[in-house]
Amino acid sequence: SGHVQLPPPQNVTLLSKDFDMILTWTPGEGSPPDVTYTVRYESQERMDKWIKVPHCKNIRSTSCNLTCVLPNFFVKVRARVKAVSGRFQSPWVESQFKEYYLDVELAPPVLNVNVKKNLIHVNASFPLATCVESFSWMYDLNLWEAGSEDKKQYEGIFRKNTVTIDTTALRGNYCLSARSSFQSIDFKRSKFSQPVCVLLNHKG
Q1: Whole-angstrom Cα distance, residue 181 to residue 156?
Q2: Cβ-count burial of 22 within 10 angstroms (0-12 exposed, 13-18 middle, 19+ buried)?
Q3: Is the model's pLDDT at 13 over the cut of 50?
Q4: Contact at 8 Å (CB) between 76 and 96?
Q5: Which of 88, 149, 156, 180 has the fewest CB atoms within 10 Å, i.e. is most exposed?
Q6: What's the rounded Cα separation, in Å, for the pair 143 and 113?
Q7: Element (H, E) at 101
Q8: What is the pLDDT of residues 15-72, one digit of tens each?
Q9: Which residues pair with 39 in a beta bridge?
Q10: Over 50: is that where the pLDDT of 1 sits?
């Protein structure tokens, strides 16, 4: 039809990052400045049915967060994206298949540390999308004296639970760090968070 095609998006990847499932891509070489992108996804439950993603239609961004669009976290999905400019469009480009439950990658939690007289209260907050809050996310917590390799470990704490540490016998600078953990087919863990250090000094 003599129809000029736009260059297709490149490096189309379905990426699990920090508890989210995100489709990412880069603009095709020579894309016009006004190019926008439209994304659809397909689940292995219903092959050959590509489902629209309302918040990723004619977007300028080169990524689309699919986490809370996924119909089932235990089934593999893939996504596709095309470029659009005026009345021209590129061919669709598909990603590989990924499954949230198996492929999710964890970010370290953020620690909230509250120092009382002889106690420290610690809880961890997770950068979770609301649709995955029901999963049984856990965290492991380490406590150690600054400069020491000897770490006290608190493992498998349910995400919403606070850890209370008796500091009566502790003096000096103590550090805390945590990682997210999740039991799927095998155990997944994030890296440890940046340490939070507190001065514990009991006079008298």
Answers
A1: 8
A2: middle
A3: yes
A4: no
A5: 149
A6: 12
A7: helix 100-103
A8: 999 999 999 999 999 999 999 999 999 999 999 899 999 999 999 999 999 999 998 9
A9: 81
A10: no
CA dist 139 and 125 (Å) reads 10
Residues 6 or more apart whose CB falls under 8 angstroms from that of 63 comprise 22, 23, 24, 25
CB atoms within 10 A of CB 78: 19
The upper half-sphere exposure of residue 203, i.e. CA atoms within 13 Å in the direction of its Cβ, equals 0
SS3 200: strand
What does the alpha-carbon distance between residue 139 and residue 62 come to, in Å, rounded to a whole number? Answer: 32
Neighbour tally for 81: CB within 10 Å: 26
pLDDT at 117: 86
SS3 call for 67: helix
At 165, list the tokens. Answer: 């540490």
pLDDT digit string (tens) for 129-159?
999 998 999 999 999 999 999 999 999 999 9
Residue 4's pLDDT is what? Answer: 64
> From the CB of residue 147, how many other CB atoms can be counted at a distance below 10 Å?
8
Question: In the predicted model, is pLDDT for residue 204 greater than 70?
Answer: no
The Cα–Cα gap between 82 and 99 comes to 22
pLDDT 10s digits, 75-107: 999 999 999 999 999 999 999 999 999 999 999
DSSP 19: T
